[in-house]
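Supplementary Note 3. Input sequence used for the single-chain structure prediction.
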Amino acid sequence: MTDTRIAVIGGSGIYEIDGLKDAKWQTVTTPWGTPSDQILTGTLNGLQLAFLPRHGRGHVHTPTSIPYRANIDALKRLGATDIISISAVGSFRDHIEPGNFIVIDQFIDRTFSRESSFFGHGFVAHVSIAHPTCSRLSDICFSAASEAGITIHKGGKYLAMEGPQFSTLAESQMYRENWGTDVIGMTNMTEAKLAREAELCFASVGMVTDYDSWHVDHGEVDVAKIIATLADNAQKGKNLIGRLSNLLSQERTTCPHGCDRALESAILTAPDFRDPDMVIKLDAVAGRVLRR
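The predicted structure, written as discrete structure tokens, is reproduced below.
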């Protein structure tokens, strides 16, 4: 058994965590570049926690420029066992209202300008993301939000778009009516893919800010309105995080869904043919299987 070390990636509106003991901002060096920001570490009611502001403090990274690989690698290097990704999303459903939260369990990826794998030429691996989130961790997030009095929906399909522009009306209608998606965002699919390759349990919580552009009563996405909703959502997100220690065991056991063993049979490149430089870069992400 190991200690549970939870990592929270905060989206728009969440740039810090309240109530952390022994809190300090740490600089983490990775072979994949510099993370979005320093990482805030400490303990929250006895639970070891690391917090990374996805866009950097001050919101300096676009969804495309976020150094996703460096972020996930840095959290793994700090000993994270579980990642909870909290981000702003637009809703495609009347009943999923601005101010509500949603635990996402499926994705459709329409991103095209970012690196979404640690592996590549010289070291090939194929992990399964049929179920891209950890249902154990997702259930914990749902319970924590419910305990905090947050209106939260369990299960939903997230459309990941490249951005930074919002959808056209035609796209919004297609995603909603033809593709059956529930919410839209720009970041979580990439994080989910990389977390799986890093053998980390991953849960995605969407904070609903708007109805994208499909809703006849709400019109196109308005940044001013989003910012107003973000402030309220950010406090709700912090309340959710504050209740995680009541639900997560401090002793980490094997994931019943196999998230922590995702690379077990995923690596295809034979040991003698692996690019030595890639092997070095993968020391944190794939260290469990490389050191056997």
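The first helix runs from residue 68 to 77. The mean pLDDT is 93.
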